[in-house]
Amino acid sequence: MEIRTLRAFIEVVRQGGFSAAAQTLFSTQSTVSKAVKQLEDEIGLPLYDRVRMAPTAAGGIVLRRARAILAERDDLLRELDELRGLKRGELRLGISPIGGGTLFAPLFAVFRRTYPDIHIHLEEHGSKRLEELVVSGEVELAVSLLPAGEGLTFQPVRTEPMVAILPPGHPAANHASVTLDEIGATPVVLFDAAFAVNRIIADAYRHRGRALAVAARSGQMDFMVQLVAAGLGVAFLPRMMAGEHRHPATTQALLDEPGTDWRLALVWRRNAYLSAAARAWLALTAEVYPPG
C-alpha cells in the first residue's frame, strides 16, 4: 500500500471525481484512476462507486484509515526534522473568513517579527472544511467553532454574541435585542454550507420550534448585508463582524436566544505532534487572547 495511492483516493472522494482530483494533485485523470484501481486491487474490494461518484462501504473505512495514516506520516517527518535540527520553517495554518482577518492579522505581524525564518502557509475555508484538513494532517492548526469535531482538541480564542442584521422596515428594527419570535417569519440570509456558523442559527430555530426559511447563501459578509439592505431577509453575524459591516439601510440587534454565542477556537488533532512553529503560534494567541 503506497502513500500516493492513498492520497489519490482521498482526493477523489474529497473532490467528488477523478478529473477534479487530478487537477488538485497536478496529475492526469488516467494516472489518478490507475492509482485508485491499484489500491482497489490490493485490497480486493471496490472502494469508489463510479456511477454514484461516492465511496463504497469499504471505501469509507479505507478513507478514514488513509487520512489517519497520512496525518501520522506528516507528524513523523515533522518530528524527525526537528530532532535533526532541520526545521522546515513552515507553519500550515487554516483561517476562516469569518473573524480570521480581524483577530489574527495583528498576530501575523508579531509572529513575523519574532520568528522571521518561519513561513506561514495559509488555507482559507469555512470551519467544516478546515477541520477536515486538520484531521487529514494537511494543516497543523485551524480556526474553527466550538464544539470541536471528533478527535480534535482546542484552545479558545474569542466568544461573541450573535447579532441580527434586520432589513428596512422590519417591526423589530428599533429593538436593542430580538428573539426569533420577534424576527418572525422573515427569511434568513445564511453563509455558504461550508461555514459552521450556520449550525448556531439552525439549532436556535429548531430549539424555538420555528421553521428556518433560507432566502440566500453567500460566503461574503459584505454581500450578505447588501442582500439584507435590499429587503431579502435577515442575516446573523458575530457582534465583532457586525460592527464592521454596517449599512445605512439596515439595523442591528443582539440575538436574545440561549446557546447562540459564537465561540472561536484554534483546533488540532488530539495526540498529534505539533511543530515548534505551531506551539509558538498557540502561545502567542494565548498571550493576546487569554483563554477563559
Distinctive features:
single chain, 292 residues, Arc Repressor Mutant, subunit A, D-Maltodextrin-Binding Protein, domain 2, 3 domains, six-stranded mixed β-sheet, 11 helices
Q: Can you describe this structure?
A:
The protein contains 11 helices and 13 strands. The protein is of the alpha/beta class. The chain has 3 domains: 65 residues, Winged helix-like DNA-binding domain superfamily/Winged helix DNA-binding domain (Arc Repressor Mutant, subunit A, Orthogonal Bundle), CATH 1.10.10.10; 97 residues, D-Maltodextrin-Binding Protein, domain 2 (3-Layer(aba) Sandwich); 99 residues, D-Maltodextrin-Binding Protein, domain 2 (3-Layer(aba) Sandwich). A 6-stranded mixed sheet has the order 8-12-7-11-9-10, sandwiched between helices. Helix 5 links the parallel strand 3 and strand 4. The radius of gyration is 22 Å and the shape is globular.
Helices and strands in order:
Layout: H1 3-15, H2 18-24, H3 29-43, E1 48-49, E2 54-55, H4 57-83, E3 90-95, H5 100-114, E4 119-124, H6 127-135, E5 141-145, E6 152-160, E7 162-166, E8 177-178, H7 180-183, E9 188-191, H8 197-208, E10 214-218, H9 221-229, E11 234-238, H10 239-244, E12 251-255, E13 262-269, H11 276-288
Parallel strand pairs: 3-4, 3-5, 8-12, 9-10, 9-11
Antiparallel strand pairs: 1-2, 5-13, 6-13, 7-11, 7-12
Rg, nearest Å: 22 Å
The portion of residues forming beta strands comes to: 15-25%
Name of the CATH architecture of the largest domain? 3-Layer(aba) Sandwich
Mean pLDDT: 90
Largest sheet: 6 strands, mixed
Task: Output the CATH class name of the largest domain.
Answer: Alpha Beta
Q: So what's the oligomer here?
A: single chain
